[in-house]
Amino acid sequence: MIGAGKIKQYINVLDKPLSKGKQEVSLSAFAFLFSELVQYNQTQVDNISELERRLEDAGYAVGARVLELLCHREKGNRRETRLLGILSFVHSTVWKVLFGKVADSLEKGTEHEDEYMISEKELLINRFISTPKDMGAFNCGAFVAGIVRGVLENAGFPAVVTAHFVPVEGQHRPRTTILIKFDEEVLQREARLG
Amino acid sequence: MAAIFSLYIINKSGGLIFYKDCGSTGRMDTNDSLRLASLWHSMHAISQQLSPVNGCTGIDLLQADTFDLHCFQSLTGTKFFVVCKPGTQHMEALLKHIYELYTDYVLKNPFYEIEMPIRCELFDINLSQAVQRESVILLGR
């Protein structure tokens, strides 16, 4: 084989370092693919909450894989075990790998102890999407909510994650908030760990 | 007075899928704009057949006493045209830019059905901005 001698041969595939991965993909290609995903799911459902659920499920699978990959690639096979640790992992590491930037903000809910919010002025997947008025509060960010749920649940932090449009004063476009509501067991464990 | 009167997008079968008037001059009601759109579609097709030049792609510019009509046809047959004051410059670039906005905010929108009337908030916002920017540049000249 030509040039085969130049490449270092690994006897075991597991000894091979994990590739850094391609850092960027075409946004247009992604936008078209995502658009098809939404359109396909639209043909499979009769109501909007069903569509939301299907998008979330699609995201969940992505989240589960992303967690696995990033723990191996960035954290040397360790994963976060504390609540704030995993949240900041989602907010910075996961966001950076998926969207090329850290999320705009991560806040704790004011009314409930178990609620956290990740906000984005403009979610990358919503860049080209105008949601029709007749779809009400539907947000394609449900896909991202699914990703977040996938990461959290597989890291041992079961939670309910939803995406919402939140109007901003003085801005034409609403921002998207990913609302995370952790299960009770998570908070109990946190309290125990002190 | 704004130099750009109105903007049209017609699909490949000649149906009007987008209409926007800028300013009060040359404003048309829905029926008239639909009529103009299909009329232009047919004229464009006929001109290709009548042209003495080989490989003619249709009318790019129609000049009248009171207006100019610039037309841009995409590879898929969607036509974008703008009606403006006679002698207005840089309309080709504006049409190309509108085409770009169309590919971004209309074609990548999962809720848009192809060949159907365009109702996309983001497209409207970005289009208004583009036209406004163009008007400012034109006034400055």
TrEMBL record, chain A:
Part of the multisubunit TRAPP (transport protein particle) complex. Belongs to the TRAPP small subunits family. BET3 subfamily. Its main location: endoplasmic reticulum. CDD domains: TRAPPC5_Trs31 (cd14943). InterPro entries: NO_sig/Golgi_transp_ligand-bd, TRAPP-I_su5, TRAPP_component. This is Trafficking protein particle complex subunit. GO terms for biological process: endoplasmic reticulum to Golgi vesicle-mediated transport. It comes from the Eukaryota. It is found in: Endoplasmic reticulum; Golgi apparatus, cis-Golgi network. It comes from Lithospermum erythrorhizon (Purple gromwell). PANTHER family: 41-2 PROTEIN ANTIGEN-RELATED, TRAFFICKING PROTEIN PARTICLE COMPLEX SUBUNIT 5. Keywords: Endoplasmic reticulum, ER-Golgi transport, Golgi apparatus, Transport. GO terms for cellular component: endoplasmic reticulum; TRAPPI protein complex; TRAPPII protein complex; TRAPPIII protein complex. It holds the Pfam family TRAPP.
UniProtKB/TrEMBL annotation, chain B:
The keyword Transport applies. It is found in: Endoplasmic reticulum; Golgi apparatus, cis-Golgi network; Golgi apparatus. Keywords: Endoplasmic reticulum, ER-Golgi transport, Golgi apparatus, Transport. It comes from the Eukaryota. The keyword Transport applies. One of its GO terms (biological process) is endoplasmic reticulum to Golgi vesicle-mediated transport. Its main location: endoplasmic reticulum. GO terms for cellular component: endoplasmic reticulum; Golgi apparatus; TRAPP complex. PANTHER family: TRAFFICKING PROTEIN PARTICLE COMPLEX SUBUNIT, TRAFFICKING PROTEIN PARTICLE COMPLEX SUBUNIT 4. Belongs to the TRAPP small subunits family. TRAPPC4 subfamily. Part of the multisubunit transport protein particle (TRAPP) complex. This is Trafficking protein particle complex subunit. It comes from Lithospermum erythrorhizon.
